[in-house]
Design brief:
It is a single chain. The longest helix is centred in the first third of the chain and has 15 residues, at about 5-20. This protein has helices at about 5-20, 35-45, 60-75, 80-95, 105-115, 120-135, and strands at about 50, 55, 95-100, 135-140. It has 6 helices and 4 strands; from the N terminus they run ααββααβααβ. The strands form 2 sheets. It has a two-stranded antiparallel sheet with strand order 1-2. The protein has one domain (about 5-140): Four Helix Bundle (Hemerythrin (Met), subunit A), CATH 1.20.120.1870. The protein is globular, with a radius of gyration of 14 Å. It is mostly helical. Helix 3 (about 60-75) packs antiparallel against helix 4 (about 80-95) and helix 4 crosses helix 5 (about 105-115).
């Protein structure tokens, strides 16, 4: 069973890490400026069920959906790509998986997702799933 991120995880872990370590030239605005309804929808996306079964049944797919939705739905005023990168890493680590890619590579993928057309959602999810499957390991 997956551990899914909740708003407190985003606020207390992901946002704080991004604010402290990933400011670059653009500091993150206050967490209070987020769009709460959008964030709720983003956090619910990997947990969707149909007839009592997860629509996204594996950790890799759930992680890809979380990443994609943060980038595309813009639940934050600014810093959505950075928040997607941190949230992906936190989601995987809370589910005993580790992704071995550089922050630059992961951020470049976020830029690719951000510039993609919505019609190419499935293609972007496949790209993300491949990245996760090919560059992660499970903690034993």
């Amino acid at each position: 069973m997956s551990y899914f991120l909740i708003e407190e995880d985003i606020r207390d872990i992901c946002y704080q890490y991004a604010k402290t370590h990933l400011t670059h030239d653009e500091p993150l605005p206050s967490f209070d400026t987020r769009y709460p309804d959008k964030l709720d929808a983003v956090l619910a996306a990997p947990q969707r069920e149909l007839s009592g079964k997860f629509v996204y049944p594996t950790i890799e797919i759930q992680a890809a959906v979380l990443f994609y939705e943060i980038v595309k739905q813009h639940p934050f005023l600014n810093g959505n790509k950075r928040m997607a990168c941190v949230s992906l890493m936190v989601f995987l680590s809370l589910n005993d998986m580790w992704l071995k890619v550089s922050w630059r590579e992961l951020y470049d993928v976020a830029v690719t997702v951000a510039s993609s057309k919505t019609e190419n959602r499935d293609g972007m999810l496949q790209l993300l799933i491949g990245l996760i499957k090919n560059n992660s390991f499970q903690e034993k």
